[in-house]
Amino acid sequence: MVTIYQGRAGLSRRELLKRGSAAGALLIISGTAVLSTGEAWGLESTALKPETVATLIQLARDIYPHDQVPDRFYAIAIKSHDELAGKDPAHKELIENGIADLDRKAGAGGYTGLGWEDQRVSILRQIEDTPFFQAIRGGLVVGLYNQKELWPIFGYEGESYSKGGYIARGFDDIEWL
Amino acid sequence: MPAPYGLNDDSVVVIIGSGAGGGTLGNELAQKGIDVVILEAGPRIEYDDFINDEWDSFGQLAWLDNRTTGGGWRVHKDFPNLPAWIVKAVGGTTTHWAGASLRFQEHEFKTLTNYGKVEGANLLDWPLTLTDLEPYYAKAEDKMGVTRTNDIEGLPGNNNFKVFKAGADKLGYKECHTGRMAINSADRDGRMGCQQTGFCFQGCKWGAKWSTLYTEIPKGEATGKLEVRPGSHVLKIEHDDSGKVTNVVYADKDGKMQSQKARIVCVAGNSIESPRLLLNSASAKFPDGLANSSGQVGRNYMRHTTGSVYAIFDKPVHFWRGTTMAGIVRDEARHDPSRGFVGGYELETLALGLPFMAAFLDPGGWGRSFTTALDHYDKMAGMWIVGEDMPQEQNAVKLHGEIKDKYGMPIPDVWFTDHPNDVAMRNHAYKQGMAMYDAVGATRTFPTPPYPSTHNLGTNRMSEKASDGVVNKWGQTHDIKNLFVSDGSQFTTGAAENPTLTIVTLAIRQADYIAEQMSAKSI
Fold first, then answer.
1. InterPro entries attached here (chain A) (predicted)?
2. Could B378 and A142 be called an inter-chain contact, meaning their C-beta atoms sit closer than 8 Å?
């Protein structure tokens, strides 16, 4: 679950990070950035609202939930929507409206305010055929799973030619059969 | 020393496409001293440059020109602009193929006779028999270095095969081994043995897997009788008043229109592009397209009854390590209607990397049902189903009514709907595949839907009578005697076996016929 801490105007980023940590929040919105206290990264939004970007990160995790995968991989996976929104007003509208619709369906507190994944997923089931959902889900298939840094989490070893293949590295090392 | 031929040289044989059919035919003709120009739409990418990365390789090799789809197949929904996963490069799809090289079974050449009339299917007997092809199969196996033929040892089994074999044994299957593979198990023909690298689909960086790119084509070029022109996209085949084809019009690598004269034209652009080209070559004399007096050009599109079964175990498998498809069960390949369908299927080992597993395990799938499968990616095993599908007239490659490519040529629109026989076969295969894995302790199994087609067949089919099909038993079009089809689109029916060996076999045989006809001056 991504908890989003909304900073008040006038507070410094440093102060926010401190408060965020104190509140146990994982993602903090400061100015145009989404900051992660636990993982020590920030994602500057350029076209989309930072709140939208933070919700997208939660949405990405709800679509492809892997509990062993830290938020930063999801943040990288959705970053292209912010970039595309900067170039294409129609895409910006698609994303902003899509997120607004999710927040509306979720009621007070918005989408990220729903505490259980099941609650959020039941909203997603209502919109899974929409162009908005398909744009997010479709983009994640490559955007998330094609991150080389992610592969070791799943045990996938990637490129093997430079290591001489697996002929001497366990292509037939199964022992439990 | 590739021979450069002039555009006005009307003595050359022009082959369109450089894959299993075109590349082999080009070399075979060149070896006989015949002058050949191969026009290949894609670039020439040598095997050192192949990429051990699924998406990067896909971008490097795949045929990504826009195509549309229609019909009831799930590919239409999941991959509406990618009906086929085939290659646009010198070597064609022999760069991407897995290497499985199986002869057709005798009964599969006579499906109408052996299966009888199947409602809704356009079954037809091939105008040739296994006996006709046997000497050519033998030549093809030797040329390609197929394991378990010509005293070539089988490949060693990888982890995925070991799980597969254990399951096959538990189910009592009798014919299970590491396959007949056109992948060197030891050095042969100047190429090295398999290093168990995986990434067979991304092009073999060792050159251990047979591909026309680094076997047939350089051998043909070495004779001084073969010129390959990469980046040449053929738009039209033209003819004279007598109806003989005379030249092909193509966009060269710089996008400039060229016209190459020809004594003979052989079309080998795979089962989507080949009929597209014939249809696009319509003229006043041939208003329905070249060689289409039967109306069968583009029809009877087959793609094998495919699907995959993946399974998760409680211990690691590391199934991506090693040869991608070196494992087969052949027991279900027989024709045995008591199973509820005609024809048969093969089960073959298969692994995908994590990025492609995410894209293909359950296209469109999301949520924990999907992600908990990937969470156990390192404990997965996998197999592919490849079975005979029914030719159906309405399954077809058509010219799109509105959308054109950058040269103004209508893009192909690929329609496919499963025949009930295909569905029954796939369901049987899913059940057997899942039972194999369950027998060795799978905790979860996945009947995975077909991917975009890798086996594209039948759209210029071979027939005894000119009214039933497009080409005769030599791949020569019934209507135009100096126009040939040299790829899998000639297949009358698809059989249960991976098609490449039979495409190569037909190309070797066709080369003999073309050479004979040329010296007899009949073409």
1. TAT_signal
2. no
